[in-house]
Amino acid sequence: MEDNQWRVDGSNGNKYTVEWDPYHKNYSCNCLGYTYRRKCKHTHFISESFRTKLRGRAGARVV
Predict the structure, then answer these.
(1) What count of other Cβ atoms lies within 10 Å of the Cβ of residue 45?
(2) Mean pLDDT of 16-25
(3) In this structure, are residues 20 and 4 in contact, taking their beta carbons and an 8 Å threshold?
(4) Are 41 and 55 in contact (CB under 8 A)?
(5) Cβ atoms within 10 A of the Cβ of 19, count?
(6) DSSP code for 24
(7) pTM score
(8) Whole-angstrom distance, CA of residue 60 vs CA of residue 25
(9) Handedness of CA 37, 40, 46, 52 (dihedral sign)
(10) Using CA atoms, how far apart are residues 24 and 54, in angstroms rounded to an integer?
(11) Are strands 26-29 and 5-9 parallel, antiparallel or unpaired?
């Protein structure tokens, strides 16, 4: 896997690849949901994971 790719487990046991495109600043996924709607729960999961991580850093204090 590349640095900008993540493997995500689907609800039915399939494995999907979510990829970050730094040029267009968006995620893509190889699942059918993303293919038809240009959004899916897999890209949402990865995006929220990073947002949560960034919020944790912003709230941290150095003592």
Answers:
(1) 15
(2) 96
(3) yes
(4) no
(5) 16
(6) T
(7) 0.79
(8) 26
(9) positive
(10) 21
(11) unpaired
Exposure b/e, 21-39, CB count within 10 A at least 16 = b: eeeeeebbbebeebeeeee
Task: Give the model's pLDDT for residue 63.
Answer: 44
Q: Has residue 46 got a pLDDT over 80?
A: yes
Q: How many CA atoms lie within 13 A of 35 on its CB side?
A: 5
The amino acid at residue 9 is D
**Of 40, 11, 14, 10, which is closest to residue 27 (Cα–Cα)?**
40
What is the C-alpha to C-alpha distance for residues 20 and 29, in angstroms, rounded to an integer? 9
**How far lies 60's CA from each of 8, 43, 50, 56, 57, in Å?**
28, 26, 15, 6, 5
Q: How many C-beta atoms surround the C-beta of residue 44 within 10 A?
A: 13
